[in-house]
Specification:
117 residues, mainly alpha, two-stranded antiparallel ribbon, 4% strand
């Protein structure tokens, strides 16, 4: 009985630690675009590229395309910059405009406010 409790406790600690860790690709995104703590993008975390893990949203699919083109599993700032001018979610705002406006480039319902409104 004690071994079972210890095993379950260790398992829960491992899961908790992995949930708190930032995936390497997210770290690259955060440092490339210098996210403000508490911003929408900072709060979105994996939601920047995923609808629900492992399902990719349109921005995540564009990131995956860059990884495939580079034949790499390691994301770089250069790869992210290559998709800055794309409109991954087809909301008429390019990815870099969405990132600068703190909106999600993979979610068509999240877009920068229209100018002049």
């Amino acid at each position: 009985m004690e071994i079972k409790v210890i095993t379950m406790t260790l398992g829960m600690l491992v899961l908790a630690a992995s949930a708190l860790a930032r995936p390497p690709m997210l770290k690259v995104f955060e440092t490339t675009y210098t996210l403000k703590e508490g911003s929408k993008l900072d709060s979105a975390k994996c939601g920047i590229c995923h609808t629900k893990a492992p399902i990719l949203n349109p921005y995540g699919k564009d990131v995956k395309t860059q990884l495939s083109a580079a034949k790499s599993k390691i994301l770089t700032p250069k790869m992210l910059k290559k998709i800055d001018k794309l409109d991954s979610d087809k909301d008429k705002s390019v990815n870099i405009a969405e990132i600068r406006a703190d909106t999600l480039p993979g979610d068509a319902t999240s877009k920068p406010a229209a100018k002049g409104k």
